[in-house]
Amino acid sequence: MSKVKVGINGYGTIGKRVAAAVNRQDDMEIVGVTKTRPTFEARSAVDRGFGIYVPEGSLQSFKDAGVPVKGTVRDLYGVADIIVDCTPGDVGEKYKAEYEAAGIKAIFQGGEEHSLTGISFNSTANYSESWGAQFSRVVSCNTTGLLRTLSPIDRNIKIKNVYATLVRRAADPGDSKGGPINGLEPTVKLPTHHGPDVKSIMPWLNINTMAIKASTTLMHLHTVVAELERESSTEEILNIMRTSPRVRLINSRSGLKGTAEIMELGRDLGRDRSDMYEIAVWEDGVKVIGSMLYYYQAIHQESDVVPENVDCIRSMCKLEEDASASVSKTDRFLGIN
Ligand code: NAD
Fold first, then answer.
1. Phi/psi of residue 223, each to 5°?
2. What is the pTM of this model?
3. Do 146 and 295 reside in the same domain of the chain?
4. Which of 54, 75, 156, 299 could form a disulfide with 58 if both were Cys (CB 3.0 to 4.6 A apart)?
5. CA torsion angle for 239, 295, 230, 202 (degrees, to 10)?
6. Which amino acids bring their CB within 6 angstroms of ligand 1?
7. Average pLDDT of 282-303?
8. 129: buried, middle or exposed (CB in 10 Å: 19+, 13-18, 0-12)?
9. What rounded mean pLDDT belongs to the chain?
10. How remote is the CA of residue 9 from the centroid of ligand 1, in Å?
11. 127/188 same-domain check
């Protein structure tokens, strides 16, 4: 069977990771990535063997900088079956019309509104809803984190209410913009958009969220309080989490006290770019009292959505009907176990 041909529009934090992850699979391949300027990232894409496609008006600047180009962005549409749009938030809307005109499929990211596609994606919660779709949207890193843990719990024990507080990294490690660099900034418009975003996939879930931006770049950290439909036990919840895809139970007693140590573990695992694709949940920080569940989880914002993009391609291009088969396949090639 020939491989699905994937193009990446926007080779930044998410785009470069999705490109690497796609090329590790055996049923899909990258046919090109777009860059708007001949930066060091454009050169590193060339070094990794990716063909570069640029806007018509940028051809000369790439030529002047000596960065080889395969063609224009329109040429990429001609060779790709599907585009993974990893442009900055709110830019994707402009491209949707181009993908539509070219008759190709496209996946957007969490910086776009759910209304852009009408379908949002998470591998654990709703893989089949994107089956054969022309457009879908992989929800943001924080929403992916909430869905990874909440959806298996809701499937096993119904959840009445969720209250979550998100301590958000202020910028990605490679950014020199963003902030605060020394302070904490609450998001005062409540509830924050994260709860409604979870509802774009689990509309029945009663969830509200608050968020604080913190001066760190490593990970987000969530405190989650869930009121369950019935009484449960810490052990029952831990058993659900142990068998949930892309959830890694960690223990503070083993030295994993915070996000710094988790990312050190990520470096020790030796994966691409030291990424930590799984949501890290502190096993010794999970507690059930009656029907109230409390836990902490950490999210590596640069990478948790990467395996979901691979699964979303499989669902939209009808490569694998079974969600857990796709998840296992993606994880095997990315070294997630
Ligand atoms: P980024 O800024 O790191 O990368 C965006 C890339 O798109 C850059 O290479 C930029 O040069 C390019 N670009 C900018 N304008 C463009 C245009 N008009 N046409 C084509 N390319 C253009 O952004 P990112 O962090 O990778 O975010 C991409 C998407 O993923 C956003 O929707 C974001 O909300 C979402 N997301 C980001 C994170 C994160 O933590 N970084 C996590 C999950 C989801």
1. -110, 125
2. 0.98
3. yes
4. 54
5. -90
6. 9-15, 34, 36, 86-89, 91, 109-111, 140-141, 172, 301-302, 305
7. 98
8. middle
9. 97
10. 9
11. no
